Amino acid sequence: MKRPLAEYHRETLEQNLRALPAARPDFLSNPVSIREAAGSLDIVETEGRIEIVRVSAPSGPRILFQREGSEALLQGQKQALREAFQRRSRFIIIAGVGIGHAALELPALLRNYPHSAAAVFEPDISSWAAILSLFDAREIIGHDRIYLFDGPDACKRLAEFIIREYVYLLPAKDIAYLLGALPIDPLASTRVEEAKALARRMQDRAVSFDETITTFQRRMARPLDGLPQSVWCCVKRDAYIHHPIAEAFLNGFSEAGLQSFLEPFDSAFTTNFRVVGSLFETQPDFFFFINGLPMELLEDIGLAPGAVESIHRSRACFLVDDTTLYEDEEHPPRLGENDWVFCAERTYRKRLRPFTQNTAFIPVATMFKQPGTRRDELFAPIVYVGSLPGVQPYLRDLPTVCVELIECMEKHRRSDSARSFTEHLQSLNPQSIWMEHLYSTAKHFCASTSKGLKKREGELEYFLYNCATYFKRKEYVEALLPLGLKVYGPDTWLDTLPDAYRDRYGGFVPQEALADCYASSQLCLNIHSHQCPTCLNTRDFDAPMAGGAVLGDWVEDMDRGMLEPGKETITFQTIEEAADTAKKYLNDVSKIEEIRKQGQERIIREHIYVHRAKAVLEILRSRK
Asked: Over the stretch 136-186, which tens digit does the pLDDT of each residue have?
């Protein structure tokens, strides 16, 4: 006789179902069906130990699990799974869930093997109902390296996933197949046959793709005759600035007549396969990257060093930041004879000159395709959109004299960007005891980042850079808060804004709302970065394109004719001048509107990324 599902089983089921919509919106998408399937389960337990799990059906009960006689099978199943990971299998495919014993082992194993992943396919909804009713499966549901496939076409969708994400590029020895269900389930033999068919399909796909790889290698080994006709780029998907710059640049290449391919990059297990597979199929004439040297980036995504060195097509990177701030080892940049480095900041070229003559200054441009829309809820007399390094807790733990040294160092750096932050600090002759405090604090700060810095000199330089950014932005923002400035960015601003102005924090602005934010303010504050001390930055071009008027600190490129101060943008050179200039313009709305109009016209005429793309192609043409 079938027993109703126990209350704690129903609670476990509902707990798991609540986790599904956010983590797995396409998995078991019909909660009614899974609840109905759970209602057909017959679970027998003795003192909390599962004895038997049956599924009631019109044709008679079907056993999913029976403890008697299964202990050795379970141990063998778990051992096979452990051995697959120990063999360094990268992708483990489990055919069938049973009641979940194999799947439950996965999270702990994946913690020990961070470069591996697992996929489970199970068409039978009763098996999913069993695991969700018997166990807390939230860790499996939310795990980013466990892929779950349900429904009648589960195996087919897994095969489509493997092809779409290019997982078949893994060598066959790095893929393992296991049966998750115990052999007592009559459907187990069906899962075995499905897994065999899947293995054959993966192998066939890998073999057929070998020709694509061979063609890629042959094509890349031949120098290009003439200008490139296609360009390929990969960039981190979640990079707030770099991804939209890459997208805008690739759109610019498209408008210049090139076929353009942009591959978003992330930390997902399948990313490298997908990016490399796309590269092999695309076979581009030209490689383009943001903030990373071509040889290193191509190796990072999975190409062998020999394959990278055999590429004789033009490869370029666009440096919009000082990447040496993220390095703590002195190693020369690796640049091939066909590699180019385009620098948004002129001072970077001097550092690169000993390693390559293929460098050129290319300014940034606007990322926006069209102006923003003025929105009342975003209105502010002055708006500042910018990050603020989270150094406040570390500064609070430093002796006062150390904080004063950093503040003084930051002001020295403003007037002399040729020297490093550490050199400016050393010029203040700090006592050794204060330096040890700074080294120790820098180490703790860098440990909280993902930069991987290990040498204390590199840790200190990166910490001082972040502190300098913090003090510079804080100083300008605090000077303009009394004039109505509103701040957008990370919540680190909340710990910095004076209590009387905490309501001026507007939160994080998503990229899609950024143009509207600029267009809705009277003035857009721009604070140029310490790592780009002489160049105009993205906001210099984005805010006018959006329909805003920039109020920014002066940099050398202001006098090189790209934008005309007082006509297309507004500049200041000191804190006092920033406040005085803001007051003057806020009292002359017609002048602000004039600058908005003329700035936007100049950007459209000269500073969109098709102009930069054409400049890159012209430089390549001139060096042929």
From this structure: 999 999 999 999 999 999 999 999 999 999 999 999 999 999 998 887 777
**DSSP annotation string for 128-190:** HHHHHHHS--HHHHH-TTEEEEESTTHHHHHHHHHHHTTGGGS-GGGEEEEE-S-TTSTTHHH
Backbone angles phi, psi at 532, to 5 degrees: -130, 75
Q: What is the largest CA-CA distance in the chain?
A: 88
- Straight-line distance from the first to the last Cα atom of the chain, in angstroms, rounded to the nearest whole number: 84
Say which residues have a Cβ less than 8 Å from residue 387's Cβ, sequence separation at least 6: 489, 490, 492
Q: What is the mean pLDDT of residues 59-84?
A: 88
For the segment 94-125, what is each residue's pLDDT rounded down to a tens digit?
Answer: 999 888 899 999 999 999 999 999 999 999 99
Alpha carbon dihedral 36, 42, 47, 51, in 10-degree steps, equals -130
Total length of the chain = 624
In three-state secondary structure terms, 533 is coil
Q: Where are the alpha helices (DSSP H) in 481-608?
A: 511-520, 538-546, 575-586, 589-606
- Give dist(CA 284, CA 282) in Å, integer: 6
Quick one: tokens of 224? Answer: 């290009």
CA distances from 429 to 110, 397, 408 (A): 50, 21, 12
Using the Cα atoms of residue 324, residue 325, residue 327 and residue 330 in order, give the sign of their dihedral: positive
Phi-psi region of 88 (alpha: psi -120 to 50; beta: other; left: phi over 0): left
